[in-house]
Amino acid sequence: MEYTTFGKTGRNVSRIGFGGAVAGLKNYLYEYDPLQDDSFKGVAKALEKALELGINYFDTAAGYGNRLSEKMFGEGLKGVKPEDIFLATKFSGRTKDEAFASLEESLKCLKRDYVDLIQIHGSSFKKEETDDILAPGGLLDAMEDMKRQGLVKYIGFTTEDNNDNMYRLIQSGRFDSIQMCYNFIFQHGYEPSRPFGSLYEAEKYQLGIATMRAPTSGTFQRWIRMVNPDNTFDYSRALIQFVLSNPLVDVALIGMRSEARVIENVDIVNDTEGRIDLDKVHERYV
Ligand SMILES: NC(=O)c1ccc[n+]([C@@H]2O[C@H](COP(=O)([O-])OP(=O)(O)OC[C@H]3O[C@@H](n4cnc5c(N)ncnc54)[C@H](OP(=O)(O)O)[C@@H]3O)[C@@H](O)[C@H]2O)c1
Q1: What pLDDT, on the 0 to 100 scale, is given for residue 285?
Q2: 186, 213 Cβ separation under 8 angstroms
């Protein structure tokens, strides 16, 4: 397993992280029911395999199946010493009280006294929302309180968008990490030929950088199947290698819910020969 330092947290984390959305959400990307007995057992086995093969970064959220994913993680990781893994979760609320209440419930589901990372569960941050987060007595102050109280070690936010507001959150200098959407089909965060992008900004502020949807949540593969049904090339592997090839990405999160996928993805991260030179991919002759 390849490891790296997760930004200013200084923590040693595996370059792929176990993403918990697909485990807890019903029909999130594919037909699936987390409430089936087999689902719970399958995720427990996947978590066990991930630990055995060296994955130490685990990402879940209160919002994944009304805490089902957190409960699965709590059960599957209960024998693990807290200091041996990096456990991240998220809350969806936007007030201090909602955030604290959500964290308290997360700790119960995860069977822990603290989590390594609490994140604002973001999508596209609006101006007013961001003003509220950064205002005195706002959400960011509350998250720093969580840190002072020892309920969390680090604070971060997640974002699907690359708008001005996410830049404002980075530039506050008060977050320890960011989780952003970056993959082969969403490359706004990283344009090395100019260069510009939020990945560079996050690196400048020494944030731990995790990315979501390395295998594009299946979108790219579905497109290929539509335009060229006979094509059998393993695009998922290449897509994951693409994200791992980015030197600014600390952890590429991949949604996993089966032992077989964990084995496959650990094989991909261990195949360091499969990394590509992104500067060459983006090379332009102008
Ligand atoms: N706003 C936010 O905070 C936010 C948003 C999205 C995601 N995230 C985080 O990022 C994680 C990853 O994103 P995601 O789960 O949405 O999408 P993803 O990782 O792009 O896609 C997950 C799906 O890809 C398939 N897959 C995984 N490895 C594969 C491989 N080697 N070959 C073929 N297929 C493979 C799995 O299918 P099978 O089920 O068939 O194995 C899985 O269901 C989430 O779980 C979550 O932790 C956060």
Answers
A1: 67
A2: yes
Q: Is 210 in the pocket of ligand 1 (CB under 6 A)?
A: no
Mutate to test the pocket of ligand 1, among 29, 87, 161, 237 (most ligand atoms within 8 A of CB): 29
Distance CA 210, CA 258 (A): 21
Cβ neighbour number for residue 256 with a 10 Å cutoff: 24
Query: Residue 61 has what DSSP assignment?
Result: -
CA-to-CA distance for 96 and 142, rounded, in angstroms? Answer: 6
Tokens of 200: 């560079």
Q: Using one digit for the tens of pLDDT, what is the confidence trace for 195-211?
A: 899 999 999 999 999 99
Of residues 157 and 36, more confidence is placed in: 157
Ligand 1, atom 13, residue with closest C-alpha: 213
Rounded to whole angstroms, how far apart are CA atoms 118 and 151?
9
pLDDT in tens, 137-148: 999 999 999 999
What gap in Å lies between CA 122 and CA 76, rounded to an integer?
A: 26
